[in-house]
Amino acid sequence: MSNLKERSNGETPVLYRQPFNDFSGRTVVNNIENVNYIKKSKMRFWYNNQTEAYGTHWHNAMEIIIPIEETYNVIINEKSFSIKENEILFIPCGATHSICAHEFGSRFIYLIDISLFYNLSDFQILSPLFVQPSLFSKDSHPYIYGTIYSIFMEMNEIYFSGDMFWEFSIYSLLMQIFTAIGTNQFKKITTNIQPSKKTKYYEKFSDLLYYIDTHYNENLTLEAMADLAGFSKYYFSRLFKQYTNYTFYNYLCYKRIQASQALLSTNISVTEIAFQTGFNNLSTFCRTFKKYVNCSPTEYRNTCLSSH
């Protein structure tokens, strides 16, 4: 780390220059960034020491930021984060965010398409942890922070070397990070549970989240989901909030809005999309959509069309 701590002079160290000469710059249309991944891949890493700000934008990639010199200020969905040196910030896919300008400093920035994980059953129970921004530090996650940080540094070595099968290697390391995060979170809610029952809790949560993902457009109730999981309504509510950081109904709304975003890129009417994704009327859908996405469904559709 000593070579990283030297104050940036505006030039990218040779060690951290892009391994392939295919980067043509950032493309942002109506706040949507078309991520300039490395050719034939779904990721792009930077050693970033630029001083300009990045205005409000969003993209479908997961973004991770690790400052290595000075702090870095990021606003995500109108919430401000001040990331200290060596802390790790995960920005969810699709989250609206902006980055403040700095006179000096450097950081690693990772943009990764994680859609290939979506069909994995284990990702069903992991995905709620990345609905909101997550900041990892020695204090907030003492048991796994060191492991996660070390893996990201290993990912840097692989990426910037441009060696064979670098993309495979990085995705395998990312799966290790996700596994560590999911295991640590699940241990928190099963601390006082007998070891023999922890696997059953995992299976129940996995089945429940899969059920929500595949039945979000139905009239799901807290009572019915608690009964499906085999818990009382109050115990279920506490466990769900403790694990996902969402109430059941807020998480259900999030899944519905997430589904509606995909449909808004089609020719289906906004009214039909509202009913297809489980909303009882158009006004409730529009109000909820704006709460989660910071724009109306029509504005979102127009932006997507402009981007394409």
Describe this structure in words.
- By secondary structure, the protein is of the alpha+beta class.
- The chain has 11 helices and 11 strands.
- It has helices at 2-5, 121-126, 145-161, 166-189, 195-215, 222-229, 233-244, 248-263, 270-276, 282-293, 297-307, and strands at 28-29, 32-33, 43-48, 54-57, 62-69, 72-76, 79-83, 88-91, 97-99, 106-112, 134-136.
- Strands 3-10-5-8-11 form a 5-stranded antiparallel sheet, covered by helices on one side. Strands 4-9-6-7 form a 4-stranded antiparallel sheet, with no helix packed on it.
- A hairpin with a 2-residue loop joins β6 (72-76) and β7 (79-83).
- α6 (222-229) packs across α7.
- The longest helix has 24 residues, at 166-189.
- The protein starts with a helix and ends with a helix.
- The model is unreliable at 1-8 (pLDDT under 50).
